[in-house]
Design goal:
With 118 residues, the chain is mainly β. It contains no helices and eleven strands.
């Protein structure tokens, strides 16, 4: 069984910062890509940022220059540093990881709410 546990969401004023963390635990042989997605009310879930096990990174255009994704493989944890937050960043943020245990599967965290007030 593999679990992804997120933390760090909350309420912040526009222009502020938050840092999200997502730790993977369980029967894990290896983790390939890890990423963050978000879903705002009435909208589809969208990719925010993604980092591979080799360190390749891609960001949504809307967050480039403001958000930074990183990972600590020794802790099986991915981070999302969010700066210069805007009200349109308000959403539930989900962690995603490609994990090999006895087979490869994608896993999702439970989601953490980020609310940016204007």
């Amino acid at each position: 069984q593999v679990q992804l546990v997120e933390s760090g969401g909350g309420l912040v004023q526009a222009g502020g910062s938050l840092r999200l963390s997502c730790a993977a635990s369980g029967s894990i042989f290896s983790i390939s890509a890890m990423g963050w997605y978000r879903q705002a009310p009435g909208k589809q879930r969208e990719l925010v940022a993604r980092i591979t096990d080799g360190g390749s990174i891609n960001y949504a255009d809307s967050v480039k220059g403001r958000f930074t994704i990183s990972r600590d493989n020794s802790k099986r944890t991915v981070y999302l540093q969010m700066n210069s937050l805007k009200p349109e960043d308000t959403a539930v943020y989900y962690c995603n990881a490609g994990v090999t245990s006895w087979r490869f599967s994608e896993y999702w965290g439970q989601g953490t709410q980020v609310t940016v007030s204007s």
